[in-house]
Design goal:
Largest interface: A-B, 42 and 37 residues
Number of helices of chain B: 15
Structural class of chain A: alpha/beta
Distance between the termini of chain A: 59 Å
Largest sheet of chain A: 6 strands, parallel
CATH architecture of the largest domain in chain A: 3-Layer(aba) Sandwich
Strand order of the largest sheet of chain B: 1-4
Oligomer: heterodimer
CATH architecture of chain B: Orthogonal Bundle
CATH superfamily of the largest domain in chain A: Response regulator
Number of domains of chain B: 1
Number of strands of chain A: 12
CATH topology of the largest domain in chain A: Rossmann fold
Shape of chain B: globular
Number of helices of chain A: 12
Radius of gyration of chain A: 26 Å
Strand content of chain B: under 5%
Number of strands of chain B: 4
Radius of gyration of chain B: 20 Å
Order of helices and strands of chain A: HHEHEHEHEEHEHEHEHEHEHEEH
């Protein structure tokens, strides 16, 4: 009985000491002035995202990431959706120049259209970050894929499979998207940088699909009729290349034709890797791009430098996804990001 | 209307054929076919010819739906919107837990509702069809993007082998897409030439007022026409999705609707309504198919392909207006 009382007392005393100790530790906390400025400075700023169009994996993914940061740091985040119309995009950009937000995130439909307007926006003091598709004007920052690098990786993979004596032939087909987009022009440059070193590789078809899977399918079907021994195919975007892949599967040439494509690493694209439609999927990882984009937005909004004073860019790393590494880390769904 | 010349004698009929746009396109198609067969070693092979027809049969199916509306003096530029939204929605529903079958029925009902709604706008609201369908297209697409699906790209829901069969399988070596186009051609030919519905469509296209006075139920007929075209669009969308393993709602922003009109007009169905047959659609479809296939084999650049398509359409229209000069009657009917 006495023993028990002593034990109880001891325990109480111990708990009391521990409590006082923590309370003291709390009191010794230091206010971090940088934290206060970090959160305070960004409050009330305005960031506007001008995508090609909302409604597809890439833009929805970035927007979800940017919205999260805007909520955390209390700045305004708006989207102006031109729904694939370069005209509407140009008008949106013009009106943004008069509205003067603090920062514009621009996704270019091609390398020319927005180039002068982006320079104008910077001259007016609006900071500009370009995302994934560049224009001819270099602005405060560019975050996104290096299309030349994607082209080189894709071509290298195809050369490895279809070089002299390796595949069914040395014939390769290329499916492009829209001929004026940065993704097309720079990627083709990358592809041909590699292919020019391998004159044995014969490009038997190079056709634009307008990002339409059905058009990609019928082009690939025709190409396979003409060249039943086709060895490799390079597609410019996973969204269209489901069509390319289904033409290859339907011709019963899934094992013969090596298909390389690229995309943002959405689960839909990954599904096509695991069911064998895509042999190699070069992913530019949208969640990662979104995080880098957020870091750039915060950096530019905090910086005292004026718009266009220092120009940087960051080509984000690429992931080559094959059947062996389709996993949670490499593939994402929109719900994961939200 | 020189093709349906009432003269039973054979000679004028043949010369009449070559004076019509249909005849001109037939000659152009034949010339292109012979030229490609001689120039491209692998063009004239059974495999390639099937590929050729298959690549345009979805376009052909859509053009059949469009033809019915155009013959009845309407136009439906909302077909692509109806097609992508109803099919994408069906896929989204299937992924969210409904069975694919139920989802497909819901998609079909949505397409029908869209068609009927457009019909009501045109028949009861008396909005000109081009404006009604142009606006309806944006509304349907907007509805879809806002409420039904977030991503434009929808893969076919996994685990339904039968669904991919239906766009990818072959019957006696002929792709089902082509078979469907053929069967639909026969059905619609029968519908237009052997049923009261068909005759009334022609009557309405020739002279809407006269048709109404003589007792054609114009308004229900207009509703029916747009419902049929919407339903055909849905069917075409299913085949498209099944054969490409996915559907991209972005087709709404593409030039596909103009390609459908190209097929209809090129084949010789006048946009002022009242004439044209299923064989015009078949002709237009095959001609476009020959051009596209030949140019793909020749590996011609994208911009040049568009240029060629445009020039051919212009050529057909110019030759048509040279061979069939405007008279008082045709100019009164007006053009779209």
């Amino acid at each position: 009985m006495r023993l028990r009382t002593i034990g109880l007392l001891a325990a109480t005393a111990l708990a009391a000491t521990a409590w006082t100790a923590t309370a003291n530790a709390q009191n010794k906390g230091l206010e971090n002035p940088r934290s206060t400025t970090f959160h305070g400075t960004l409050e009330g700023k305005k960031v506007v995202f001008l995508p090609l169009s909302m409604g597809f994996d890439l833009t929805e993914g970035w927007a979800a990431r940017m919205r999260q940061q805007a909520e955390r740091l209390n700045y305004d985040f708006e989207i102006r959706d031109p729904a694939w119309s370069t005209d509407a995009g140009t008008r949106a950009l013009q009106s943004l120049i008069t509205e003067k937000p603090d920062l514009i995130v621009a996704h270019n439909p091609d390398i020319q259209s927005y180039a002068r307007l982006l320079a104008q926006a910077q001259a007016k003091g609006i900071k500009v970050v370009q995302i994934n598709l560049e224009s001819n004007t270099q602005t405060d920052s560019y975050v996104g894929a290096d299309w030349t690098e994607i082209g080189e990786q894709a071509a290298t993979a195809v050369v490895d499979r279809c070089g002299e004596g390796k595949g069914s032939s040395t014939k390769v087909a290329i499916d492009t998207g829209v001929p004026t987009a940065a993704s097309d022009v720079f990627q083709l440059d990358g592809i041909y940088r590699v292919l020019d070193k391998h004159p044995e590789i014969e490009v038997v078809s190079q056709q634009a699909t307008e990002y339409n899977p059905e058009k990609a399918r019928s082009i690939m079907e025709t190409v396979l009729q003409q060249h039943p021994d086709l060895c490799g195919a390079i597609g410019i975007w996973d969204n269209q290349d489901t069509g390319t892949a289904s033409a290859i599967q339907q011709a019963g040439k899934g094992d013969q034709v090596f298909l390389v494509t690229s995309g943002g690493g959405n689960q839909v694209g990954c599904e096509n890797v695991s069911n064998g439609l895509f042999n190699l999927y070069i992913s530019y990882n949208v969640p990662l791009q979104g995080d880098i984009l957020n870091a750039e937005i915060a950096r530019l909004l905090l910086s005292d430098a004026g718009a266009g004073e220092s120009k940087t860019l960051f080509f984000n790393p690429l992931t080559q996804i094959t059947k062996d590494n389709v996993n949670q880390r490499n593939c994402w769904t929109l719900d994961d990001l939200k | 209307m020189s093709t349906t010349n009432a003269n039973p004698a054979n000679a004028p009929r043949v010369s009449g054929l070559f004076k019509s746009q249909e005849g001109i396109v037939l000659i152009l198609a034949f010339v292109a076919f012979v030229a490609f067969s001689l120039l491209l070693p692998s063009f004239f092979s059974a495999g390639n010819l099937l590929t050729l027809v298959r690549s345009v049969s979805i376009l052909g199916i859509l053009a059949l739906g469009m033809a019915i509306v155009v013959i009845g003096r309407g136009i439906d530029v909302s077909m692509i919107a109806t097609m992508v939204v109803s099919v994408s929605w069906a896929f989204v529903l299937a992924r969210s837990g409904y069975s694919l079958e139920v989802s497909l029925v819901i998609g079909a009902l949505f397409a029908l509702c869209a068609g009927v709604a457009i019909g009501i706008l045109v028949a009861f609201g008396e909005v000109p069809p081009i404006f009604a369908t142009l606006a309806a297209g944006s509304v349907i697409y907007g509805l879809g993007r806002t409420f039904f699906f977030q991503l434009e790209m929808q893969n076919v829901p996994p685990g339904h082998e039968w669904f991919s069969l239906f766009g990818q399988a072959r019957i006696l070596g002929i792709p089902i897409t082509v078979v469907t186009f053929g069967v639909l051609c026969i059905l619609i030919h029968f519908l237009l030439s052997r049923t009261r519905f068909g005759w009334q469509v022609y009557a309405m296209g020739n002279n809407p007022e006269a048709a109404r006075i003589t007792g054609v139920p114009s308004r229900p007929m207009i509703l029916a026409q747009y419902a049929v075209s919407a339903f055909v669009a849905y069917g075409a969308g299913l085949i498209l999705a099944s054969s490409a393993s996915a559907i991209n709602a972005r087709l709404f922003n593409s030039t596909m609707i103009y390609d459908i009109l190209l097929v209809v007009v090129l084949g010789g169905i006048g946009l002022n309504g009242g004439h044209g047959k299923v064989r015009n659609v078949v002709l237009g479809t095959i001609f476009v198919g020959i051009l596209l296939n030949g140019m793909t084999i020749l590996n011609i650049d994208y911009t040049i392909q568009n240029l060629v398509k445009g020039v051919v359409l212009l050529l057909a229209i110019v030759i048509d207006s040279l061979v069939n000069p405007r008279d008082e009657q045709t100019s009164q009917q007006g053009d779209l």
